[in-house]
Write a structure and sequence with these properties.
Length: 114
Amino acid sequence: MWFGEPPRAASPDREGGPSEGLYQLIGSRWVAAVLRELDGDVVRYNTLHRRLGGVSHKMLTQTLRRLERADMVHRHAHPTTPPNVEYLLTSAGAELVANLSALERWADTRGLPY
């Protein structure tokens, strides 16, 4: 699987390796964009939605939930009316951002699109 492609069904003889979950996580169009926006910052949901321009509320919510389940993002809901929800990277999320940045620099030096 390559970035941006839909996940493939695991072959019966392989049943997906340890990296299959990683590729399913980072293979989404919006995951890297959300991680970049959260890098080094606590961001409210609506601010994140505005910054990402083009992502639907449904897709952003699904992406944030997926990242939260993978322990890449922490969600903090303040008990206010209306609800004030903030997101920030966990240490694992920050480490993933650093690795994605290294991969993007590598692609840049070779003239590859990412």
